[in-house]
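FAQ: What does a ligand-bound record look like?

Like this one, built around beta-D-ribofuranose:
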Amino acid sequence: MSIPVIIDCDPGIDDVMALLLAFVRPELDIRLITTEAGNQTQDKTAYNARSFLSYMNQEIEVARGLEQPLFVNLEVADDVHGESGLGDVIFPEPNFAESDRTAINALYETIMTSDEPIVLIATGPLTNIGALLLAHPEVKENIRYISFMGGAAVGGNMSPTAEFNVYVDPHAADVVFRSGIPIVMSGLDVTHKAFLDEQDLKRIEAIGTDLTTTLVELMTFYTKAATQTAFHEENFATNVRLHDLCAVGYVVEPELFQGDDCYVAIETQGELTKGTTVVDYAQSLPHAKNVHVLHTVNREKFVDMFIDAIKNAEQLIKGGHSHVEKN
Ligand code: BDR
Ligand code: CA
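The answer part, i.e. the structure of the complex:
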């Protein structure tokens, strides 16, 4: 049985790895990809998505999203993902054009015409989805749930309490978290436990293909860049965090994860806390639980799932061009 999904992303190094995982999983029927301004500008994330899809031989509509967060100026993560958004790796020129639909129109039409409720996988800021819900709240009825990488119950990576995807567009996250759509939140609580260690990287290197060389390049850039910023703590030096892959991994193998249902609100303005997901574990606020907050992952099985995906991805690439250059 296939699961109809839409992926909204800001590629972004871990975003392309999450896309790779999604492409190889037969359970997923990817109906559309929309891009966010986040890790880099909209121009760059939209280009990177098409370029990675071309490399992976995937023919899926890619629709460009909004250029800026709803009410604040865009802050990109060039310190972690590089000037291009994909470190030093240059994938081939895209071999197909951007959709002539905007992300908002494409999301609206794809969701409303779907025969079954859609699972939305979101691995970037929530600007497009927030704007979609403001413009067309009726889409809620045909969204099964949103699998979102972002937020944290404890500790942030952009400030003491805020995670990047929520921090970049807290107002959009606020709209989404108040929408009533079921949300599964892969926040830093779980994504910091979903990492590759040195042994895992060696297993990937040992596969010995053009793709694995490229992935190791990307992960090395991401790891090195992250240790030079305050973005992650120092054990990132050897551990590669697979943040965005959790949002895809949960949809295909939810039994690898554990979490709790909680009420979660977004702090949109706090001087110290802007972009924080306030997770009411203590049930001290009089609100219904709106989010399934993941806190644990079976790391070994999760890593195996990713490594199997890398092996299987070769089949996708074989049919098309797989030439990758380095800066
Ligand atoms: C999130 O921020 C981005 O830089 C990553 O792609 C991921 O979506 C982690 O906080
Ligand atoms: Ca991302």
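Follow-up question: can I read anything off the structure? Yes, for example: The CA atoms of residues 111 and 129 lie 12 Å apart.
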